[in-house]
Structures are given as structure tokens and as C-alpha cells.
Amino acid sequence: MTRLLVVEDDAALGRALAIILRAHRYDVAVSTTGTDALQKAAAWHPEVVILDLGLPDIDGMEVLAGIRGWSQIPVLVLSARQNSEDKVYALDAGADDYVAKPFAMDELLARLRVVTRRRETTPEDPVVQTAAFTVDLPRRKVTRDGAEVRLTPTEWRLLEILARHAGKVVGRTELLRELRGPNLAHETHYLRVYLAQLRAKLEPDPAAPRHLITEPGVGYRLEP
Hints:
Elements (H helix, E strand, L loop, with lengths): L1 E6 L3 H13 L2 E6 L2 H11 L3 E4 L8 H9 L6 E5 L4 H9 L4 E4 L4 H15 L7 E3 L4 E3 L4 E4 L2 E2 L4 H12 L4 E3 H9 L8 H14 L9 E4 L3 E4 L2
Parallel strand pairs: 1-2, 1-3, 3-4, 4-5
Antiparallel strand pairs: 6-7, 7-8, 8-9, 10-12, 11-12
């Protein structure tokens, strides 16, 4: 059973989620405060976290930052904050997905399955090597000229998707669904921004990229 930590200040909602998730074969623990959530995360080592942002003691973003300080476990934000800026901020800070309240339980379960699969790695995960940089998927590490390159969580997720399909074009809609979820699947300007950031960090000449290639009107490709 997958260990799942629900961080929700509404005790009744937390109990209801726990009951439903246990029925779907999750091993569930519930926290109603950010402090308790961080303690449970460190002691219990959940395999996935559902995180509310409106907590009574510390903001949920601080909880996310605390978890990301030592772990890359999937974190699905479940929040009443519906502003797109809040969603982007949470995703850039390391959340794997964002579901706004009110929500449908079948959608939440589907999102949980997606973020859990996304983080699963196997010994068969490749190391993709280009002439300029190396993407080590099992170790979640990128190196250039022998030195590790620091990427933001969103930059890493984008590069990871392209690396898993090295040599093939990945469509813009597919990339955005993976990065942002279906609600932001048409906001393609985000991709241009993140590709520019990756090229600045990885390409010898970002203005004339050799590896992070744009296929106009279609998508993007990582060329080894």
C-alpha cells in the first residue's frame, strides 16, 4: 500500500479523504497543521503528499519548501486558492500538481495516480548524453563540463520529459499537461520561457541551440 500523507486543516475533510483513500488501498496519515505535517513527513516517509496551502500555523508553501529541502516525493496541492499565479508559484516551488477546491474525487484519484507514476524510477531509466551536457535520470542530476547544473523543479521536469523521449518530438499540449495539469494545457508561453532558461544553462550557444530544439507549431525535442 502506498503511504499517503494528507495535510488538511479542515478536520472533517481530512477524515473524509482518509476514508475514501483507504478504500482505494492507500495507507493514510492525516495532519491538520504544517508543523505536524513536517514532523510526520520526516518520521513516516510518505510516498506521496496531498497538501492544503491554508494551514493554521504556517503557510502550506513553507511546508512544501520544507519537504523539498530533503525529498522529491510527489506533492499534490489541494487548495481553495484558484488564482493562476498561486498555481504557478506552487508548481515552480516543487509541487507536482495542483487541484483547486471544490474538486471531484475521481479527478483527485486520477491526479494521484499520475504524480505517483511520474516519480517512479527504475534501473532501466536512461542516462542521456549530449555533446554539451548529460541528463542522469535515475540520479535526477544534470552535468555540464563535469559540473552539476542547478535546475528549478519545473526546469527539471521539462528536461526529464524530453530526455525520456530523446530524439523524438514531444507535443506542446502533452508537455504542458505533464508540467501544469489539464487546466493549463493551452498556455504555451510557459514552455518558451522554460526552454529559454534551460538553453541558457545547458546550450553552448543558447541563441543557436543544438540539443533543445523547437519544432515550430508542433513541440520540442531533445537531440542527443
